[in-house]
Amino acid sequence: MSGTKSDRPELNRLKDKLRPGDSIVVESFSRLGRSKKDLIDLVNYFEEIDVKLISIKENFDTSTPQGKLMMTVFQAFSQFERDLIVERTKEGLKSARARGRKGGRPKVNAREMTKAVNLYKTEQYSVSEIVEMTGISRATLYRYVNQDQS
Description:
- This protein is mostly helical.
- It folds into 2 domains: 9-98, 3-Layer(aba) Sandwich (Rossmann fold); 110-149.
- Helix content is 62%, strand content 7%.
- It is built from 7 helices and 3 strands.
- The chain has a 3-stranded mixed β-sheet with strand order 1-2-3.
- Helix 3 (36-48) packs across helix 4 (65-98) and helix 5 packs antiparallel against helix 6 (127-134).
- The two termini are 42 Å apart.
């Protein structure tokens, strides 16, 4: 299964079978996870359940002091990267607000929304037809219909 996906059936099966004290040997970290975040999350998970991780290509073993040190360094860089992303996002939002941008979802045209919900209630049109007639998205229509029934 591709390493680009974090939800992989074979990896999930492996996780289900792991017990404290087990060791996982991988050819390379690139085979375990494609993103740094995914890889670090996996390593943290293995640490929490007391499972050692060994990578042949990178000559990395989390059961050794050097491996633990390297994992700590990787985690520190990962946290630093997450913090930078949050900081840049906040700066971008602040800059956009200064230019008069508000952000968030655009307001739904109330008249079109009422029309869409009424068409839905008649049961004469499919959702696809209602979406095409009103320009309201399928998700928005369902959200309003479900709100109406609550």
